[in-house]
Amino acid sequence: MAIPPLNRRSVLRVGGAGMLGLTMPKLLRAAEQATSIKPRAKSVIFLFQWGGPSQLDTFDMKPDAPESVRSPYRPIASSADGIQVCELLPETAKRMHHATLIRTMTHTMKNHASAGYYALSGHEPPSDDQRLRDSLDLYPAYGSVVDHLSPNRNGMPTSVAYPHVIRDGSIVPAQHASFLGKRHDPLLFLEDPNDRNFKLPELSLPHGLSVDRLQRRREMQRLVDAQTRLLEYSDQARGFDDYYERAISMLTSDRVRKAFDLSAEKESVRDRYGRTTYGQSCLMARRLVESGVKFVTVYFSASIGGRRVNDGGWDTHGFDNTRMYKIVDKYQLPITDQTLPTLLDDLEERGLLDETLVVWMGEFGRTPNINKNLSRDHWPQCYTTLLAGGGVKGGYVYGKSDQHASRPAENPVKPEDLAATIYYLLGINPTTEIYDRNNRPLIIGGNTLHDVIA
After folding, report:
1. Residue 85: helix, strand or coil by DSSP?
2. Which among 57, 85, 312, 446 is placed 20 to 30 Å from 2, CA to CA?
3. Which residues contact 305 (CB under 8 A, 6 or more apart)?
């Protein structure tokens, strides 16, 4: 009779007693071996659509629903049998054979701050509160967990995030390492990759300061630190010191500087991605994973959006100039339909798509009913996430929403489950525990969606 794999939790339930003649250390080793995971993806590109795209107007259209529910746009066929998408996404439709659509993402957080934290961490916030504040008691970013458990050894940063710090009034939590320590923060930059003079200050030395001189300054600082014993009693100082060391290693690395040099790309390639901040950010993401960065987070916008018509995120509440429902819209859907297909094509052409997981998602979806402002409000109960490449099935739909895309009808998926699936595809066991600042063990993920894995 086959023995089922052991996980750490089941092993600990055994206590100090032997099981099948094994001692506790051997049991733990057996459990670790039984749950070892072969990576399907080397890297993740996490495209976060801050503000909440509408599932009914993108990837889960309900053309047979009442007029008050169905999209003003028509669905069109895609390259995947049985999958339709919005008519404003014609190029994306041609690449759906690469994608898995999870149409039953669900939670209960209706405020951007709480829902955003949930989406960026895979852990439920303590409350549904628009005033949720960043705190070391809250969970770290995905990339920080990856850096903690499976850091790069190739000279490249494990995690990079850009070109915004997202907020809705206050800064949304889960954009950094939180209680894991500053040493695991993503490399964050806020410069615009679409700027003609784009250059990362972190990778540029001040005028007149050579690398040798910088290293001598660092040696002097180490001596002062040792004399004051600063690093022996301050975890925070150690974190800053590690961060400083990483910055210096990047300053002296040709590989890192080259990865961030967008000017090395052909003009035709840059044009394909689109001369927008988001378009050039997606091109940068391809360059970073190609150079060995493991987790890249690209934020669509710094703000949720709202009334503005030419910037901001996906929070299209209507008013008098709603973006989502104007055929002449040149912003969200057209930008998406240029950048996402181009990114998938570029990764495929370079042989990177099979080893790079692309995640396209927001913090929630939109209400089934179109309101009096010809818009949709916040709706976390059912929304869609797109996955492509990196070990997932192509042309596949996981889960089924009800007739109005208002609730999951089959296979609901919580953010914890998506987190588990991302970690699993990277070869990280989603039952792994990390420890908060009170030394409490926290499991990093929920239930892996094995059905979406190729």
Report:
1. strand
2. 446
3. 51, 311, 312, 313, 314, 315, 316, 323
